[in-house]
């Protein structure tokens, strides 16, 4: 290691230490939000098999969230004064939910929900009528993709759907432009095992770079290779690295104070991050059986936070989670 790289590491470590300490003393750090954010996993079905995902390990039933449970969730969340809602999933692709647009329209009938969107591969956009899609009230999409050809896409996503997905993305961008860009489209580039110069030179990346405001070349150069292995359930390829395991004694994860997730079965979790089978200590109840507000303000969640904070009783799933937010 050279002197300058040792120095760089030292500076990075010092910055982290400062953030780590000051974060602990931040005002309201251990106070739950009055009204949480809410993610609704409208379906846990996904046909991809990404190298860093526990989709293939998931044993819970693959199903869309029942529409009754969905409307109950949205109505109760609106009554709580909720404003921050999305269709992000733990596992799944909302584009495979047959009632996606119906659900989006249902959410957007409440003026307080000004934005709505989700992360998707876009592999299934062609199934939808685009006029209906744009009219549904969805305001943003974050598209996970690689843009360096079919082979690398297949290696990452586990499915041979590059051409179709690329076509869907190009179509979406053009249709969005035609309509005056009502939809915020973010392209989330995933890492591949090839030299970065091959990625940034690729004709598809260059083409897309001319179509969006994002600087895709810069994004490709900054693609994050640090991920989580879902508590050891996923064996990562060599080019992906595990995020560091940040110390967490007596310091509950920020996500336990921020929001709730409703899984496709109706189970409600304190964090959607790693619980691919929706079976961990973070499951608080079922939306079919309890009011959402009661779950947010209830004993189960308060106990999780308190036991971690005062007795260092870290829930099993949080012990080795590399998405822990300090
Ligand atoms: S990361 Fe998303 S797209 Fe990939 S397999 Fe998992 S759920 Fe599907
Ligand atoms: S440590 Fe991980 S699983 Fe636990 S609440 Fe935080 S992000 Fe979720």
Element layout with pairings:
Elements (H helix, E strand, L loop, with lengths): L2 H22 L12 E4 L26 H13 L5 E2 L13 H9 L8 E4 L9 H6 L4 E6 L4 H8 L4 H17 L5 E6 L6 H6 L1 H9 L4 H6 L4 E2 L13 E2 L16 E4 L4 E3 L13 E4 L5 H6 L1 H13 L4 H4 L7
Parallel strand pairs: 1-2, 1-8, 3-4, 4-5, 6-7
Antiparallel strand pairs: 8-9, 9-10
The structure holds iron/sulfur cluster (SF4) (2 copies).
Can you walk me through this structure?
- By secondary structure, this protein is of the alpha/beta class.
- It contains twelve helices and ten strands.
- It has helices spanning 3-24, 67-79, 100-108, 130-135, 150-157, 162-178, 196-201, 203-211, 216-221, 292-297, 299-311, 316-319, and strands at residues 37-40, 85-86, 117-120, 140-145, 184-189, 226-227, 241-242, 259-262, 267-269, 283-286.
- It has a five-stranded mixed sheet with strand order 2-1-8-9-10.
- A hairpin with a 4-residue loop joins strand 8 and strand 9.
- The longest helix has 22 residues, at 3-24.
- It is globular.
- The two termini are 29 Å apart.
- 34% of the residues are buried.
- The model has no long low-confidence stretch (mean pLDDT 97).
- It binds iron/sulfur cluster (SF4) (2 copies).
- One iron/sulfur cluster (SF4) binds next to helix 12.
- The site of one iron/sulfur cluster has 10 residues, from loops.
């Amino acid at each position: 290691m050279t002197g300058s790289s040792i120095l760089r590491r030292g500076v990075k470590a010092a910055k982290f230490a400062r953030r780590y300490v000051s974060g602990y003393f931040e005002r309201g750090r251990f106070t739950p939000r009055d009204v949480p954010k809410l993610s609704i996993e409208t379906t846990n079905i996904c046909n991809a098999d990404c190298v860093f995902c526990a989709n293939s390990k998931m044993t819970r039933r693959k199903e869309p969230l029942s529409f009754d449970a969905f409307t109950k969730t949205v109505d109760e969340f609106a009554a709580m004064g909720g404003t921050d809602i999305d269709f992000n999933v733990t596992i799944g692709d909302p584009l495979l939910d047959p009632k996606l647009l119906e659900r989006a329209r249902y959410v957007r009938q409440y003026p307080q929900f000004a934005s709505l969107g989700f992360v998707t591969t876009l592999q299934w956009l062609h199934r939808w009528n685009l006029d209906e899609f744009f009219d549904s009230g969805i305001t943003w999409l974050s598209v996970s993709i690689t843009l360096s050809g079919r082979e690398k896409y297949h290696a990452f996503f586990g499915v041979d759907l590059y051409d179709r997905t690329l076509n869907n993305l190009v179509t979406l961008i053009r249709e969005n432009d035609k309509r005056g860009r009502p939809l915020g489209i973010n392209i989330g580039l995933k890492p591949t095992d090839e030299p970065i110069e091959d990625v940034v030179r690729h004709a598809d990346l260059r083409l897309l770079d001319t179509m969006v405001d994002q600087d895709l070349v810069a994004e490709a150069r900054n693609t994050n290779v640090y991920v989580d292995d879902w508590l050891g359930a996923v064996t990562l390829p060599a080019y992906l690295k595990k995020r560091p395991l940040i110390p967490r004694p007596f310091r509950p994860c920020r996500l336990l104070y921020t929001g709730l997730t409703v899984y496709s079965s109706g189970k409600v979790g304190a964090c959607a991050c790693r619980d691919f089978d929706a079976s961990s200590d973070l499951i608080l109840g079922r939306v079919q059986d309890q009011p959402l507000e009661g779950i947010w303000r209830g004993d189960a969640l308060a106990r999780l936070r308190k036991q971690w904070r005062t007795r260092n009783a870290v829930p099993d799933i949080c012990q080795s989670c590399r998405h822990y937010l300090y």
